[in-house]
Amino acid sequence: MSQPKVLITGASKGLGLAMARRLNQDYCLILHASRDENIRELREGNFVLAADLGDPDELKEFCKKLKSEHGDDLFAVINNAGMSLDKPLAFQPEKDIDSMLMVNLKAPIMISKTVIKLFGLKNKGIIINVSSCVAETGNAFQSVYAAAKAGLIAFSKSLAKEAGQLYQGHQIRVLSISPGFIKTPMTDAVPESEKEKYLKMIPAQRFGRADEIAETIAFLLSDKASYINGSNIEVNGGLF
Ligand SMILES: NC(=O)c1ccc[n+]([C@@H]2O[C@H](COP(=O)([O-])OP(=O)(O)OC[C@H]3O[C@@H](n4cnc5c(N)ncnc54)[C@H](OP(=O)(O)O)[C@@H]3O)[C@@H](O)[C@H]2O)c1
Fold it and tell me: Which of 41, 59, 77, 92 is most buried, most CB within 10 Å of its CB?
Protein backbone atom coordinates (compact mmCIF):
# COMPACT_ATOMS: atom_id res chain seq x y z
CA MET A 1 0.00 0.00 0.00
CA SER A 2 1.31 3.47 -0.84
CA GLN A 3 2.20 5.79 2.02
CA PRO A 4 -0.05 8.76 2.80
CA LYS A 5 1.26 12.05 1.46
CA VAL A 6 2.27 14.95 3.69
CA LEU A 7 3.10 18.42 2.39
CA ILE A 8 5.73 20.38 4.33
CA THR A 9 6.22 23.97 3.22
CA GLY A 10 9.60 25.57 3.83
CA ALA A 11 11.35 22.20 3.93
CA SER A 12 14.70 23.53 2.72
CA LYS A 13 16.12 24.27 6.18
CA GLY A 14 15.40 24.85 9.86
CA LEU A 15 12.22 23.38 11.31
CA GLY A 16 10.84 22.25 7.94
CA LEU A 17 13.96 20.25 7.14
CA ALA A 18 13.92 18.66 10.61
CA MET A 19 10.24 17.73 10.10
CA ALA A 20 11.06 16.21 6.70
CA ARG A 21 13.85 14.09 8.19
CA ARG A 22 11.61 12.92 11.04
CA LEU A 23 8.58 12.06 8.84
CA ASN A 24 10.51 10.54 5.95
CA GLN A 25 10.15 6.92 7.08
CA ASP A 26 6.41 7.00 7.66
CA TYR A 27 5.02 9.20 4.91
CA CYS A 28 5.50 10.11 1.28
CA LEU A 29 6.58 13.74 1.47
CA ILE A 30 5.78 16.66 -0.76
CA LEU A 31 8.68 18.94 -0.02
CA HIS A 32 8.12 22.58 -0.76
CA ALA A 33 11.65 23.90 -1.04
CA SER A 34 13.64 26.35 -3.07
CA ARG A 35 17.08 25.02 -2.14
CA ASP A 36 17.59 21.64 -3.66
CA GLU A 37 20.95 20.79 -2.10
CA ASN A 38 19.57 20.57 1.45
CA ILE A 39 16.86 18.10 0.55
CA ARG A 40 18.86 15.93 -1.87
CA GLU A 41 19.13 13.21 0.80
CA LEU A 42 15.31 13.17 0.99
CA ARG A 43 14.41 13.18 -2.69
CA GLU A 44 14.01 9.43 -3.20
CA GLY A 45 10.37 8.42 -3.08
CA ASN A 46 9.28 11.96 -2.30
CA PHE A 47 8.16 14.93 -4.41
CA VAL A 48 9.47 18.47 -4.63
CA LEU A 49 7.33 21.52 -5.34
CA ALA A 50 8.94 24.95 -5.52
CA ALA A 51 7.18 28.30 -5.23
CA ASP A 52 7.76 31.73 -3.82
CA LEU A 53 4.82 31.86 -1.43
CA GLY A 54 5.16 35.62 -1.28
CA ASP A 55 4.15 35.85 -4.93
CA PRO A 56 0.37 35.59 -5.47
CA ASP A 57 0.72 34.02 -8.95
CA GLU A 58 3.23 31.42 -7.78
CA LEU A 59 1.01 30.64 -4.78
CA LYS A 60 -1.97 30.11 -7.09
CA GLU A 61 0.05 27.81 -9.35
CA PHE A 62 1.39 25.92 -6.30
CA CYS A 63 -2.15 25.27 -5.01
CA LYS A 64 -3.27 24.14 -8.45
CA LYS A 65 -0.39 21.65 -8.76
CA LEU A 66 -0.88 20.41 -5.21
CA LYS A 67 -4.49 19.60 -6.01
CA SER A 68 -3.97 18.09 -9.47
CA GLU A 69 -0.78 16.10 -8.73
CA HIS A 70 -1.30 15.06 -5.11
CA GLY A 71 -4.90 15.81 -4.17
CA ASP A 72 -6.11 12.20 -4.24
CA ASP A 73 -3.74 10.83 -1.63
CA LEU A 74 -2.94 13.90 0.43
CA PHE A 75 -3.15 13.08 4.14
CA ALA A 76 -1.76 16.19 5.82
CA VAL A 77 -0.37 19.66 5.28
CA ILE A 78 2.16 21.42 7.48
CA ASN A 79 2.18 25.12 6.73
CA ASN A 80 5.66 25.78 8.07
CA ALA A 81 7.26 28.29 5.66
CA GLY A 82 7.62 31.66 7.32
CA MET A 83 9.73 34.80 7.39
CA SER A 84 10.28 37.81 9.55
CA LEU A 85 11.65 41.24 8.62
CA ASP A 86 12.19 42.85 12.01
CA LYS A 87 11.90 46.65 12.17
CA PRO A 88 10.05 49.36 14.07
CA LEU A 89 6.63 49.56 12.42
CA ALA A 90 7.13 53.25 11.68
CA PHE A 91 10.03 52.36 9.38
CA GLN A 92 8.63 49.16 7.88
CA PRO A 93 8.20 49.50 4.11
CA GLU A 94 4.69 48.56 2.95
CA LYS A 95 6.10 45.93 0.60
CA ASP A 96 7.71 44.15 3.59
CA ILE A 97 4.39 44.29 5.45
CA ASP A 98 2.70 42.72 2.43
CA SER A 99 5.39 40.00 2.15
CA MET A 100 5.08 39.05 5.81
CA LEU A 101 1.28 38.87 5.62
CA MET A 102 1.46 36.94 2.38
CA VAL A 103 4.02 34.29 3.37
CA ASN A 104 3.00 33.90 7.02
CA LEU A 105 -0.77 34.17 6.76
CA LYS A 106 -2.31 34.31 3.29
CA ALA A 107 -0.29 31.41 1.86
CA PRO A 108 -1.30 29.01 4.69
CA ILE A 109 -4.92 30.18 4.26
CA MET A 110 -4.91 29.57 0.50
CA ILE A 111 -3.19 26.19 0.87
CA SER A 112 -5.73 25.23 3.54
CA LYS A 113 -8.58 26.40 1.29
CA THR A 114 -7.26 24.10 -1.43
CA VAL A 115 -6.92 21.04 0.77
CA ILE A 116 -9.93 21.35 3.08
CA LYS A 117 -12.19 20.65 0.10
CA LEU A 118 -10.19 17.50 -0.68
CA PHE A 119 -10.22 16.44 2.97
CA GLY A 120 -13.98 17.07 3.05
CA LEU A 121 -14.49 14.62 0.19
CA LYS A 122 -12.56 11.91 2.07
CA ASN A 123 -13.74 13.01 5.53
CA LYS A 124 -10.11 12.78 6.63
CA GLY A 125 -7.03 14.99 6.80
CA ILE A 126 -4.86 17.14 9.03
CA ILE A 127 -3.68 20.74 8.70
CA ILE A 128 -0.97 22.01 11.05
CA ASN A 129 -0.13 25.70 10.89
CA VAL A 130 3.19 26.78 12.36
CA SER A 131 2.53 29.88 14.44
CA SER A 132 4.91 31.35 17.04
CA CYS A 133 5.16 32.15 20.74
CA VAL A 134 5.14 35.85 19.80
CA ALA A 135 1.52 35.45 18.66
CA GLU A 136 0.60 35.43 22.34
CA THR A 137 3.42 37.36 23.99
CA GLY A 138 3.94 40.02 21.31
CA ASN A 139 7.44 41.16 20.45
CA ALA A 140 8.95 44.57 19.77
CA PHE A 141 9.91 45.08 16.10
CA GLN A 142 7.88 42.05 15.08
CA SER A 143 4.38 43.55 15.19
CA VAL A 144 3.39 42.45 11.69
CA TYR A 145 4.99 39.01 11.99
CA ALA A 146 3.27 38.51 15.38
CA ALA A 147 -0.06 39.68 13.94
CA ALA A 148 0.21 37.17 11.09
CA LYS A 149 1.14 34.36 13.50
CA ALA A 150 -1.75 35.25 15.83
CA GLY A 151 -4.01 35.18 12.79
CA LEU A 152 -2.90 31.61 12.12
CA ILE A 153 -4.05 30.47 15.56
CA ALA A 154 -7.51 32.03 15.12
CA PHE A 155 -7.67 30.68 11.59
CA SER A 156 -6.89 27.13 12.73
CA LYS A 157 -9.45 27.19 15.54
CA SER A 158 -12.13 28.56 13.21
CA LEU A 159 -11.44 26.09 10.42
CA ALA A 160 -11.54 23.20 12.90
CA LYS A 161 -15.02 24.38 13.98
CA GLU A 162 -16.11 24.86 10.38
CA ALA A 163 -15.07 21.30 9.47
CA GLY A 164 -17.11 20.09 12.46
CA GLN A 165 -20.20 21.75 11.03
CA LEU A 166 -19.70 20.84 7.38
CA TYR A 167 -18.49 17.26 7.39
CA GLN A 168 -20.48 14.61 9.24
CA GLY A 169 -18.50 11.90 11.07
CA HIS A 170 -15.24 13.33 9.81
CA GLN A 171 -11.67 12.78 10.95
CA ILE A 172 -10.40 16.19 9.92
CA ARG A 173 -8.19 18.07 12.37
CA VAL A 174 -6.84 21.60 12.13
CA LEU A 175 -4.19 22.68 14.60
CA SER A 176 -1.50 25.21 15.18
CA ILE A 177 1.83 24.90 16.93
CA SER A 178 3.71 27.75 18.56
CA PRO A 179 7.43 27.11 18.84
CA GLY A 180 9.40 29.18 21.33
CA PHE A 181 13.02 30.10 20.57
CA ILE A 182 14.35 27.22 18.48
CA LYS A 183 17.85 27.12 17.01
CA THR A 184 17.51 27.42 13.22
CA PRO A 185 18.91 29.69 10.47
CA MET A 186 16.07 32.12 11.32
CA THR A 187 17.15 32.53 14.96
CA ASP A 188 20.87 32.31 14.15
CA ALA A 189 20.38 35.80 12.74
CA VAL A 190 19.18 37.18 16.11
CA PRO A 191 21.82 39.39 17.82
CA GLU A 192 23.61 37.80 20.81
CA SER A 193 22.25 40.46 23.20
CA GLU A 194 18.66 39.52 22.20
CA LYS A 195 19.45 35.81 22.63
CA GLU A 196 20.68 36.43 26.18
CA LYS A 197 17.48 38.32 26.94
CA TYR A 198 15.40 35.40 25.64
CA LEU A 199 17.39 32.82 27.57
CA LYS A 200 16.48 34.53 30.85
CA MET A 201 12.79 34.03 29.98
CA ILE A 202 13.10 30.27 29.37
CA PRO A 203 12.70 28.06 32.47
CA ALA A 204 14.32 25.18 30.56
CA GLN A 205 17.46 27.42 30.42
CA ARG A 206 18.23 26.55 26.81
CA PHE A 207 16.96 27.15 23.32
CA GLY A 208 14.88 24.46 21.66
CA ARG A 209 16.12 22.04 19.00
CA ALA A 210 14.47 21.64 15.61
CA ASP A 211 14.11 17.90 16.24
CA GLU A 212 11.96 18.68 19.32
CA ILE A 213 9.49 20.52 17.10
CA ALA A 214 9.65 17.75 14.49
CA GLU A 215 8.86 15.16 17.18
CA THR A 216 5.78 17.15 18.24
CA ILE A 217 4.63 17.32 14.62
CA ALA A 218 5.05 13.54 14.27
CA PHE A 219 2.91 13.05 17.37
CA LEU A 220 0.22 15.48 16.16
CA LEU A 221 -0.02 13.62 12.85
CA SER A 222 -0.37 10.27 14.57
CA ASP A 223 -3.53 8.56 15.80
CA LYS A 224 -2.26 9.12 19.33
CA ALA A 225 -3.30 12.76 18.85
CA SER A 226 -6.71 11.90 17.38
CA TYR A 227 -8.63 14.02 19.92
CA ILE A 228 -6.40 17.10 19.62
CA ASN A 229 -8.24 19.48 17.33
CA GLY A 230 -8.42 23.27 17.03
CA SER A 231 -5.68 23.58 19.66
CA ASN A 232 -2.55 25.67 19.65
CA ILE A 233 0.31 23.55 20.97
CA GLU A 234 3.07 25.52 22.66
CA VAL A 235 6.55 23.99 22.49
CA ASN A 236 8.76 26.54 24.16
CA GLY A 237 10.60 25.21 27.22
CA GLY A 238 8.22 27.26 29.39
CA LEU A 239 9.12 30.61 27.77
CA PHE A 240 7.06 33.46 29.23
N1 LIG B 1 13.00 29.12 14.86
C2 LIG B 1 12.18 29.61 15.77
O3 LIG B 1 12.59 29.89 16.90
C4 LIG B 1 10.73 29.82 15.45
C5 LIG B 1 9.91 30.24 16.51
C6 LIG B 1 8.56 30.42 16.26
C7 LIG B 1 8.04 30.18 15.01
N8 LIG B 1 8.87 29.80 14.01
C9 LIG B 1 8.24 29.56 12.71
O10 LIG B 1 8.62 28.28 12.26
C11 LIG B 1 8.67 28.25 10.84
C12 LIG B 1 10.03 27.74 10.41
O13 LIG B 1 11.01 28.63 10.92
P14 LIG B 1 12.57 28.35 10.87
O15 LIG B 1 13.13 28.82 12.15
O16 LIG B 1 12.83 26.98 10.39
O17 LIG B 1 12.98 29.43 9.76
P18 LIG B 1 14.07 29.34 8.58
O19 LIG B 1 15.21 28.54 9.04
O20 LIG B 1 14.30 30.74 8.17
O21 LIG B 1 13.27 28.56 7.44
C22 LIG B 1 12.15 29.17 6.86
C23 LIG B 1 11.62 28.36 5.70
O24 LIG B 1 10.54 29.08 5.09
C25 LIG B 1 10.82 29.23 3.71
N26 LIG B 1 10.34 30.51 3.17
C27 LIG B 1 10.56 31.75 3.66
N28 LIG B 1 10.03 32.67 2.84
C29 LIG B 1 9.49 32.00 1.79
C30 LIG B 1 8.82 32.39 0.60
N31 LIG B 1 8.59 33.66 0.28
N32 LIG B 1 8.39 31.42 -0.25
C33 LIG B 1 8.64 30.13 0.04
N34 LIG B 1 9.27 29.70 1.12
C35 LIG B 1 9.70 30.63 2.01
C36 LIG B 1 12.33 29.18 3.60
O37 LIG B 1 12.67 28.80 2.28
P38 LIG B 1 14.02 29.32 1.55
O39 LIG B 1 14.94 29.85 2.57
O40 LIG B 1 14.51 28.13 0.86
O41 LIG B 1 13.54 30.35 0.62
C42 LIG B 1 12.68 28.13 4.64
O43 LIG B 1 12.54 26.85 4.11
C44 LIG B 1 8.36 29.67 10.39
O45 LIG B 1 7.01 29.79 10.06
C46 LIG B 1 8.69 30.50 11.61
O47 LIG B 1 7.97 31.70 11.60
C48 LIG B 1 10.20 29.61 14.20
Answer: 77
The CATH-assigned architecture of domain 5-235 is 3-Layer(aba) Sandwich (3.40)
Closest atom of ligand 1 to CA, residue 84: 47
Q: HEC profile for 102-119?
A: HHHHHHHHHHHHHHHHHH
* CB 35 less than 6 A from any atom of ligand 1: yes
Tens digits of residue pLDDT in 155-171: 999 999 999 999 988 99
Q: Provide mean pLDDT across the span 2-10.
A: 95
Contact predicate 63/118, CB 8 Å: no
Domain boundaries defined on the chain: 5-235
Does 53 sit in the ligand 1 pocket, CB within 6 Å?
yes
Pairwise CA distance, residues 41 & 132, whole Å: 28
In percent, the amount of the chain with pLDDT more than 70 equals 100
pTM of the full structure? 0.98
Does the Cβ of 142 fall within 6 Å of ligand 1? no
